[in-house]
Write a structure and sequence with these properties.
Layout: H1 3-11, H2 13-20, H3 25-32, H4 43-52, H5 55-66, E1 72-78, E2 81-87, E3 91-95, H6 98-117
Antiparallel strand pairs: 1-2, 2-3
Helix pairs in contact: 1-3, 1-4, 3-6, 4-6
Amino acid sequence: MNDSAIVAAVARMPVDFKEQGTLSAVELIRRSGVVENPQALSSAAVRSCLVEEPALVDAWEAWSQDKRTSTGWYFAPDGSRYVVGFYPSQEESTFNDPFEACSAFILHEVQELMGYAR
C-alpha cells in the first residue's frame, strides 16, 4: 500500500468504523497499512487529506466525543479554537486551525491504537 493510501485509510477511520459496524478501531489500524509503514503518516500528509475532505474533521470530532474510556486523547472545539488533549493528565494543546488540530489528534490516536495492533 502506498503512503497516500495509508493516510487516506487512517483519515477515513471514523467513517469506516461507522459504515462497517463490525470492525474494531484496532482492526482498522491494521488494515490501513500504517503498522507496517508508520513513516507514511505525517502531520502534513494527514492535514492535506483533511483539507481535501473537510467532513472528516467532523467525523473525528464525533469519534472523540463517542469514546468511552477513562483515559485517552480527545479533540474538541473551544469557541473559535480547537483543543487536543490527554485525559486525565490535563495535557492540552490549542489550535486555531481545525485541520492542524485534527491531524494532531489523529497522530496521537493512531500511535495509541498501534500499541494494541502489534
